Structure formats: C-alpha cells, structure tokens
Amino acid sequence: MSLLYSDLVKKRRSVYALGNSFIVPKEKIIHSIEEAIQNVPSAFNSQSSRLVLLFGDSYQKLWEITALELRKKVSEEQFQKTKEKLNSFSKGLGSILFYEDTETISSLQIKFPLYKDQFPIWSEHGNAILQYAVWLYLTDLGLGANLQHYNPLIDKALQEAFQIPSHWRLIAQMNFGSIEKEPDPKTSLPIDIRFSVFE
Question: pTM of the full predicted structure?
Fold first, then answer.
C-alpha cells in the first residue's frame, strides 16, 4: 500500500458513481485482493472466507440475476426504483462476492465443542475484516467501492451461474470501479457518544 493506513481509513468511502475505466491493470486488482485474503486474521486461523471476483460478462450477469430475482419479489413500481440502483452497480469494473465456507465452520464446531455456538459469529467477524481490508486495498489503488447485501435472494441463482459450492454461504457483494463522482462529505456522531475511556 502506498498511502499510510490512517490516510486510507479516512479516504475509504461508499462510492456509488462508479465507472469502468481501468486506472490500474486488472492484474494489480487481482494481486491486491489476493494479498488481503492471505493476510487478514480469522478465528483459530480458520481461513473460512471465500471470494469470487467477477469481471466483464460475469459481472453483468450478477446484476441481471439480481434484477430477475427482485422482479419476482417486489411490485412493478418498487422494481423501477430498484432497477436504477442495480443499473448503477453494473457500471463499474467488477464485483467481489464474499462467502463463508460452512464446512470449515462445522469442522471447527466438532473439533472444539466448547466454542460451537461462537464459530458462526466469529466467521462473520473474519469476513467483515476481509471485506474492510479489500476495500482499503481498492481505495489505495484509487478505485471506489460500495457494499451490497442481496443475499439470500440471489444465492441459489449465483450457485448455478458460477458453479458456487452449495456449502458456501453468501455474505456480501462489493462493487468497484473508477470514481466518476466523489461521495458527499461523511457525517459522524459526536465521538463521546461512541467512545469512552476509563482510567
């Protein structure tokens, strides 16, 4: 990473106006995601997160599938509003699908029964850390990103479209691309509402 970590944390934002300009080579994006996968922590070093990176036609297919599945569930009026949002997601460079391997989690539950109820929670934590790390890598490359959650609505269709193992559970979809419009300034609650220090 070229920026300081503290600068990356401040710079990372949800960017919705995405474009499809490769301001960095595709290989650099792939390598950055691989670095994040290899280096984030996970409970008991479980490494249960699985990622699928979609470019080109596969990326477009994701949002076509999402539109088809949503059309089955919402009214025509609601769908028209949603369609605009989905179209904006499909204008970037790609999407990253974040999964958790439930077989890995189940094996840990058997091996360490004392923590059985905690492993699904800890796996969510690990996936969230990985999402954030990937987002920071993309930010460092000068790319914008946003995070979506159309699961479980699209899970089955994606399994069929991309041969996703049935024991992988979809957690989130991260869209990324060139930044076509900077996001509005971030607003924050007063820090004393969210943070306490005791001595």
Answer: 0.94
Stated length of the chain: 199
Tokens at residue 76, please? 């025509």
Average pLDDT, the chain: 95
Distance between CA atoms of residues 122 and 112, nearest Å: 13
Share of the chain above pLDDT 70, in %: 98
- Strand stretches in the chain, DSSP E: 18-19, 49-55, 94-101, 144-148, 168-179
Q: Encode pLDDT of 63-90 as tens digits.
A: 999 999 999 998 888 888 888 889 999 9
Residue 191's CB is within 10 A of a number of other CB atoms, namely 8
Residue with tokens 């609601």: 78
Assign 3-state DSSP to the chain and report helix, strand, coil percentages, each to 5.
Answer: 50, 20, 30
Return d(Cα 49, Cα 47) in angstroms, integer.
6
Would you say 130 and 49 are in contact if contact means Cβ atoms under 8 Å apart?
yes
- CA distances (Å), 77 to each of 70, 111, 124, in order? 12, 50, 34
Q: Which two tokens stand for residue 68?
A: 């088809």
